[in-house]
């Protein structure tokens, strides 16, 4: 496989998952890192032995990387992606694609027009439990999802938001628990159902965070063309981070899964269970447990697609499916108390 030169734009917490993956996977070279905070860019450059930039436009012009990884605040994902595409550079973006559906769709169209790859990180699809459940739906053993439930109860204290210059804001983060934490479990449930949403009903509340305007609690129901229904509940006022749980009622059985395990019970009384297994040997230096271990799997798949070895699995067009749902949820105002 051709050796690709990759750059990482944004050196915040999540960037370690990309930096460690790039430096461990074969066929990749870390060309540079970039962050508007010079000390953060220099620290990452020193740790990973590469060049530091504070202006991503200068990085694109001088380094001419094959691809950039976007680890930026949500509101910057689409404008920076568009700049990269206009420079002839492929893009792998952290979720969400954008805080506005129209911007995300415009960016997908631009990438397709220019013939460039646009990947969006949803690494939880590559968890062993997720892969097994998806396989059993597709091979017919579980069959079509008739009803699904997604539950997230996590803890994010006020200082989690106070310590950030963009989290907990409408204009920069685009929301709270739904767009930041629950987006992964909602994406999984939507991926399992694999149908076009007909309607999205939701209610959003801020029940426990005084220092932000966005929601810390959201619940709702999504109806799909194929007759499936998805119910969801997410909140980050809990005392600890409980495992996310997704439950599926299918034509030929039921499935219960978290990021760590899955248990499938078929109508013939047989049971299939699996524990999550890391699929790539990458030693992440500081990654958070709820990010999982599958960033490297998706990043490797992205570059295999760039090399023409296989089709890009989670493209910008594919990611538009969950982006539209998230944006539909946010059409409801946030209530206090």
Could you please describe the fold and organization of this structure?
By secondary structure, this protein is an alpha/beta fold. The protein is 33% helix and 26% strand. A nine-stranded mixed β-sheet has the order 14-13-12-11-7-10-9-8-15, with helices on one face. The radius of gyration is 20 Å and the shape is globular. It starts with a strand and ends with a strand. The model has no long low-confidence stretch (mean pLDDT 96).
Strand numbers in spatial order across the main sheet: 14-13-12-11-7-10-9-8-15
Largest sheet: 9 strands, mixed
Order of helices and strands: EHEHEHEHEHEHEHHEEEEEEEHHE
Q: Which structural class do you get from the secondary structure elements?
A: alpha/beta
Q: Beta-strand percentage?
A: 25-35%
Number of strands: 15
The portion of residues assigned to helices is 25-40%
Mean pLDDT: 96
Gap between N and C termini, in Å? Answer: 55 Å
How many alpha or pi helices?
A: 10
The low-confidence parts are none
């Amino acid at each position: 496989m051709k050796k690709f030169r990759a750059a990482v734009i944004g050196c915040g917490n999540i960037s370690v998952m990309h930096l460690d993956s790039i430096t461990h996977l074969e066929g990749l070279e870390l060309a540079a890192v970039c962050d508007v905070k010079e000390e953060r860019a220099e620290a990452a450059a020193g740790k990973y032995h590469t060049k530091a930039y504070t202006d991503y436009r200068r990085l694109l012009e001088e380094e001419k990387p094959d691809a950039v990884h976007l680890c930026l605040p949500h509101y910057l994902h689409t404008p920076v992606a568009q700049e990269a595409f206009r420079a002839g550079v492929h893009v792998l973006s952290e979720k969400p694609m954008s805080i506005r559906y129209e911007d995300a769709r415009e960016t997908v169209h631009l990438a397709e027009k220019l013939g460039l790859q646009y990947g969006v990180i949803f690494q939880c699809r590559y968890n062993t439990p997720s892969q097994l459940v998806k396989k059993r739906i597709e091979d017919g053993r579980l069959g079509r999802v008739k009803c699904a439930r997604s539950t997230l109860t996590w803890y994010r204290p006020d200082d989690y938001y106070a310590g950030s210059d963009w989290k907990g804001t409408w204009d920069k983060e685009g929301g709270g628990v739904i767009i930041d934490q629950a987006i992964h479990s909602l994406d999984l449930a939507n991926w399992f159902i694999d149908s076009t949403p007909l309607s999205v009903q939701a209610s959003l509340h801020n029940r426990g965070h005084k220092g932000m305007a966005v929601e810390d609690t959201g619940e709702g129901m999504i109806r799909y063309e194929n007759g499936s229904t998805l119910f969801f509940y997410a909140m980050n006022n809990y005392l600890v981070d409980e495992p996310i749980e997704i439950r599926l009622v299918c034509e030929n059985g039921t499935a219960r899964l978290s990021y760590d395990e899955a248990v499938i019970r078929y109508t013939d009384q047989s049971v299939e269970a699996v524990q999550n297994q890391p699929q790539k040997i990458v030693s992440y230096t500081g990654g958070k447990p709820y990010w999982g271990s599958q960033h490297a799997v998706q990043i490797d798949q992205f570059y295999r697609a760039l090399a023409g070895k296989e089709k890009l699995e989670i493209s910008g067009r594919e990611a538009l499916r969950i982006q539209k749902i998230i944006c539909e949820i946010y059409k409801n105002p946030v209530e206090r108390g």
